[in-house]
Structures
1.
Amino acid sequence: MATILSFEEQYNLLTGRIFMYITRFLNQNFKAAGIDITKEQWTVLAVLWQQDGISQQAIADETGRDKPSTTRLLDNLEKLGYIERRPDNTDRRINNIHLTRAGINSEKRIMKAVEETFTMLSAGISDKEKETIRKVFNTIYKNLEK
């Protein structure tokens, strides 16, 4: 059976080349909009905008990162004033991560830059094609879970 994707296309997909370019593009758009975070930091904020006050481990699990990487992201977000760590009420060994006022207030501005980036990246892609991409990624995720 012949493959639809060339070796180069398979290589680019498996090495994450397109995702690397998307990350670079989003970071450039953040910078152009005067937003002082990276795509990786945004993924943490996005989790907290959905559920503030969760543990570092929950953030690591949700973003698919290991604990040391998550710690570095949280350290930098704390230095920037977007988050703060607070001891858990039931287990003082655990710090829960909370958005600061700056973290809460930054959501609309950051998400506007994200939406503008997605609009630029998806120009010329029909809604039907976007739905196909969504289905393909969901299938890949399910295959990875096996």
Note: Strands lie at 54-55, 83-87, 95-99.
2.
Amino acid sequence: MSEIYNKFKHDSAIKAADKEHRSRIGYNIDQYNRAVVVGKQQFANLELAKQRAAYIKHKAINDLEKHLSDFETNFQHNGGKVIWATDARQAVTEIEKILQNIRPAYVVKSKSMISEELELNESLTKLGIEPIETDLGEYIVQQADEKPYHIVTPAMHKSKEDVAELFHRKFQLKPHSTPAEIAAFVREKLRDRFYNAKVGITGANFLLADTGSVCLTENEGNSMMSMAFPDVHIVVAGIERILPSIQHLELFWPLLSTFGTGQKVTVYNSIVSGPRQEDEIDGPREMIVILLDNGRSKVLAAKHQRRALSCIKCGACLNVCPVYKTIGGHTYNAPYTGPIGAVIMPWMRNFKDYMHLSYASTLCGACTEVCPVNINLHELLLYNRNADVEQKNYGFGESALMFGLRHVLGKRKWMDTPDYSLKNKAMSVLFSKSWGKTRKLPEFSERNFKQLWEERIEGKTR
């Protein structure tokens, strides 16, 4: 087994036994889930809205080459520049080239999971450039030297007491500072950075093919300032972020806000179509969009899994996943976590190293049920598992176990013949280690199903 898999097993065992962690995450996610129930009431026909969104996004993915070409043409017509990056290393190299010409002391960054995918902060630091996260949640985890915990809420795993203690230690704020006091401190600290920044880096929630525009959705205004004040605005966007038309935003923006945070619409929604024009007095002088593949073409080439590229990163599947809520976001050791991460990460990275994520699921189907673009996530996890078997990514022990189970479970006499105590003994020998030290193995009852059924039938015929 790979080191990544062994680390996952180790970390997940620790988190699963951490009752305080489970209580905190359960509470925080429940707040979102309750808000989402209320937010959904704005839709007269929610299922129709989801069906429309699923159709539009899936069709856009199928026609991805055309829409990306249209976006590039229109964005360049608006005065912007497009760079194509096949992988993370190339994307980072292109960003480094831009920054070497400008030589900024720091860059301001808006919340962006794709920059985590690139491990951009580490690369900037090596260049002697300070990366400053401007989203409050991202800023908190940056100060804690951690990765984001959740796609939408980076610091979901921290209580207000944790944050107060962190800021007391890092910035000498008074102990037990309130959330309002911490937010005011960060606002004052970052405002000057926005004003004087030479470079701002953002992601993109959507790319509009027909207008050559970048759409940003946020609740704090930091993304807007990251692109409005600096002289250079760099956008890093996955190629799957495309929407064919600006007209589609009236559907996708409400779906994103409702399923992400329960809001009718997110506080700030910006459409940026290029750098500052001659008759404009603000905005960046230069705007560059880096279109990133980084394994997305592998997902696109997979017959079934390509559907996952329709994801709008609302985080709804994470909020209902019993596995995610038990083991937490950091355990996945990947930028994209929960059910959607379990589907795409094996394809975007080394399949063998990350395939275990597709087995970290109960297959309960809750993720599929809540997806605003109707991605059949639990089925895609099964397709991933099938691909894993076809690639023969299993050892002798697993092969022998499945061979034995196939013969035992395939014949009624083998299931009925052994004594129940013998079955329990076999269970303890074969599965006690994989079941974990903190969980009790289920036990076979004294009477099997066949016996119970015959007793029931006999009782009815008397």
Note: DSSP finds 24 helices and ten strands in the chain.
3.
Amino acid sequence: MRFERTDPFKADYQRLSEDERLMFREAARAFNAASHRFIATKDPSSWPANLRVKPVVNAPGIFEMTWSFSGPDGRATWQWTTVLDDDRNSWPAVRWRRLGNHRIFREP
């Protein structure tokens, strides 16, 4: 899945510990595979239950994913977007917005 990262996401990532970064990268691999399935089928059951992908309350078009339940609390927010390749073809993509714990929901 193509993706882009916001500046706040990049800063959030730098604040994570190495263990947290590893946990996020592992979850992102599962998320990536599921996003391909979702795009192909538009079936919400494409998302693994353990990632808890769902819309962010009061933030239209923004979704959350849980990458850690049991210490540390790990969440990421994202939205669908499109990107252009070198030939100007449009492709679905994920824009990673924020990364961290519940505090990210203040400005998802």
Note: The radius of gyration is 14 Å.
